[in-house]
């Protein structure tokens, strides 16, 4: 049996000329934990061309959703960006990844820090009631260059709170903090700077981030991950994984996708 399945595209949404998302059918046997990624892609010249994509949709959904950049000369995304309803994509049978609730030690607040499409795994995690059951507050910090790249902003603020399954918990515990670096917006600046200067915690009214109280998940560009790691380690936080839970976890599979 092949380790790949063919799935059909059900919808496509273009957020900007460099960012889009799409939903597909889901193999009933495809199981994943919220926060994980799968290998997905297209058959090119009879061979699968695959990249790691975090699943945006929660594991209780019957369909799958993915968020992608568009790179004009990128081997995969130059093709993927032209997907239309009814097209086939290939999806790996196995999901994996480090951004799991179980990889973190207990804490008071959970910070989800993502840049660009690094938001994707957190979209799945904030629709999981367990995320909220484990923490007093869940702080979703999404950093982008421009406001139109703040994908899912309207869903997070308007649709999700009304969801009958997780809406009440989300309304009570989720603090959504979008920030933009290259144009005016109510929250401005790089996530790293907002954390270092304590602007983030003062804006949301929580105490300084500490190893004692707080846990974090990171997903984004390698430079962002490196800088955030330094900040968190500097606070005495230790990285966790599936063998030893820690104070923060990082998605390493998130490469510069092209
Ligand atoms: P900036 O506009 O200052 O580069 P990209 O689209 O390049 O992946 O960036 C997404 C967001 O991540 C942008 O707001 C960008 O800010 C920010 N960013 C890029 N590198 C870092 C970093 N090393 N630390 C924190 N934020 C970063």
Automatic annotation (TrEMBL):
Its EC number is 1.18.1.2. Keywords: FAD, Flavoprotein, NADP, Nucleotide-binding, Oxidoreductase, Plasmid. It comes from the Bacteria. GO terms for molecular function: ferredoxin-NADP+ reductase activity; nucleotide binding. Signal peptide: none annotated. Gene3D superfamilies: Nucleotide-binding domain of ferredoxin-NADP reductase (FNR) module (3.40.50.80), Translation factors (2.40.30.10). It catalyses: 2 reduced [2Fe-2S]-[ferredoxin] + NADP(+) + H(+) = 2 oxidized [2Fe-2S]-[ferredoxin] + NADPH. Pfam families: FAD_binding_6, NAD_binding_1. Its cofactor is FAD. Residues 2-102 form the FAD-binding FR-type domain. SUPFAM superfamilies: Ferredoxin reductase-like, C-terminal NADP-linked domain, Riboflavin synthase domain-like. Transmembrane segments: none annotated. Belongs to the ferredoxin--NADP reductase type 1 family. This is ferredoxin--NADP(+) reductase. It comes from Aminobacter aminovorans (Chelatobacter heintzii).
């Amino acid at each position: 049996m092949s380790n790949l399945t063919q799935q059909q595209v059900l919808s496509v949404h273009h957020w900007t000329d460099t960012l889009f998302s799409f939903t597909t059918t889901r193999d009933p046997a495809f199981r994943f934990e919220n926060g994980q990624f799968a290998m997905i892609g297209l058959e090119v010249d009879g061979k699968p061309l695959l990249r790691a994509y975090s699943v945006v949709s929660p594991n209780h959904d019957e369909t799958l959703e993915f968020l992608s950049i568009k790179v004009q000369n990128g081997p995969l995304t130059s093709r993927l960006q032209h997907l239309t309803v009814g097209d086939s994509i290939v999806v790996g049978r196995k999901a994996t990844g480090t951004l799991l609730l179980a990889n973190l030690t207990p804490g008071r607040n959970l910070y989800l820090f993502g840049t660009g499409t690094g938001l994707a795994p957190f979209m799945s995690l904030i629709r999981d009631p367990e995320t909220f059951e484990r923490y007093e507050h869940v702080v979703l910090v999404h950093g982008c260059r421009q406001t139109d790249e703040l994908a899912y902003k309207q869903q997070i603020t308007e649709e999700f709170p009304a969801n009958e399954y997780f809406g009440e918990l989300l309304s009570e515990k989720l603090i959504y903090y979008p920030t933009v670096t290259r144009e005016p917006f109510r929250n401005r600046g790089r996530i790293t700077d907002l954390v270092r200067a304590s602007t983030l915690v003062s804006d949301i009214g929580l105490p300084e981030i500490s190893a004692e109280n707080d846990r974090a998940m990171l997903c984004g560009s390698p430079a962002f991950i490196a800088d955030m790691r330094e900040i968190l380690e500097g606070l005495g936080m230790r990285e966790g994984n599936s063998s030893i839970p820690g104070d923060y976890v990082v998605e390493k599979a998130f490469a510069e996708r092209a």
